[in-house]
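User: Predict the complex.
Assistant: Input components as received:
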Amino acid sequence: DTGVSQNPRHKITKRGQNVTFRCDPISEHNRLYWYRQTLGQGPEFLTYFQNEAQLEKSRLLSDRFSAERPKGSFSTLEIQRTEQGDSAMYLCASSEHGPGANVLTFGAGSRLTVL
Amino acid sequence: DQQVKQNSPSLSVQEGRISILNCDYTNSMFDYFLWYKKYPAEGPTFLISISSIKDKNEDGRFTVFLNKSAKHLSLHIVPSQPGDSAVYFCAASRGENSGYSTLTFGKGTMLLVSP
């Protein structure tokens, strides 16, 4: 078990470009979460999946953001027409279903810089 | 509005002494609380948790206390070690029994333990 893996670790892009991040959760975890963290803030919830179903989305997730988990394994987070305000660390986490559901295991994050 | 508040951005403690990190919450629906530790360039790592049916949980050098009436929890680290220097996030969840697992985080407290 290699933990939660995120790629790429760093992404620098120009305003208006599209970017995509990938997350590979712990294999036996069926819940997957995306959070965003900016400087001086704690992680902020964006969305979560149980298996392939997207069960909740935060109001932070504007229509430029889309997340998928097509086969209930890895997930992608795409940001279209990036803006400078999208610069942040994007964290992926996974958890079990049931008693361990509240303990999220995080990846190292994907840092986005929009110029 | 901040539902989970960590009012101390930073804390400095000498090695061997006790570190006390505080957290307040406003949402009465929260019934499960966690502390995460974060080193630079890494994702948050789970440290310890407590359910609302308890008022104390201990794991080695780490103890979390919960005061439901005051909507306050604290993390005690005894004795503090230089390797404990990190940002500590308080997080809360609601619906532990239902498996609702999305976490709401505070802004974090940076702990510095000096030799």
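The longest strand of chain A covers residues 88-95.
Let me know if you want any component modeled separately.
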